[in-house]
Amino acid sequence: MAKKSANLNLRKASTAKKDEFYTQLSDIEKELKHYKKHFKDKVVLCNCDDPRVSNFFHFFSYNFEKFGLKLIATCYKSQDMDLFSKNESERAIYLEYDGDKNGDNVPNPEEIGIKHLKGDGDFRSAECIELLKQADIVVTNPPFSLFREYVAQLVEYDKKFVIVGHQNAITYKEIFKLIKDNKLWLGFGFTGGAGHFINTQYENYATASDKKKE
Question: With 60 as the cut, is the pLDDT of residue 135 above it?
């Protein structure tokens, strides 16, 4: 798909508040390999994905021993295994993974703690903020329509983060100020300046902004 067309789809989706974008594992691997030393002995929170199908959760859980970390992941209005959840549940879950127990170096279901939230898993909720407070680093693909609000929360709680954003986000005055003040900067970037996503409405999305803060 041409980059121009892909970015147009992203803008349309953002306007329509269609935020169910799932980052491809290959893009995650290419970007996060640069930050391995920063994750050592840290608590990592992925708070904008369904953890059972999130490629961020997959990446960290399967590389757990290499990175040495504790992993927490939350979802929004979902208790389903369906990748494209309709987000209709009024309650959500979160998962915790603190390492391999049976020696096969694979995050088996019985080794992953599944816990129920009281609410819907919105990152702005009080219980999700409590999980945020536990985290050293946040890594996820936040809702594009709430990108500014999401980043503002991370800054408010003084969190380090590596998050995926649409390339137009750098033009937002709130985001541009953080870049100008050297509090947020672009990552190494996806191949060709484009990351690819899957969604129920469109097949391929592309974005040229992978934001990070150290």
Answer: yes
Adjacent-strand bridge partners of 113? 96
Neighbours of 19 (CB within 10 A): 18
Q: What is the CATH number of the domain that holds 193?
A: 3.40.50
Task: Specify the number of domains making up the chain.
Answer: 1
What's the number of CA atoms in the CB half-sphere (13 Å) around residue 56?
27
Contact criterion met (CB below 8 Å) for 6 and 190: no
Query: Which two structure tokens, joined as six digits, stand for 146?
Result: 């709430």
- pLDDT tens for 74-100 read 877 654 443 334 444 567 888 888 887
Rounded to the nearest 10 degrees, how much is the dihedral formed by the CA atoms of 179, 127, 124, 46?
50
Of 207, 120, 112, nearest in space to 165 by CA: 207
How many angstroms separate the CA atoms of 100 and 122, rounded?
A: 29
Give residue 200's domain range.
Answer: 3-213
Return the number of other C-beta atoms located less than 10 Å from residue 115's C-beta.
11
* 166, 14 contact by CB (below 8 A): yes
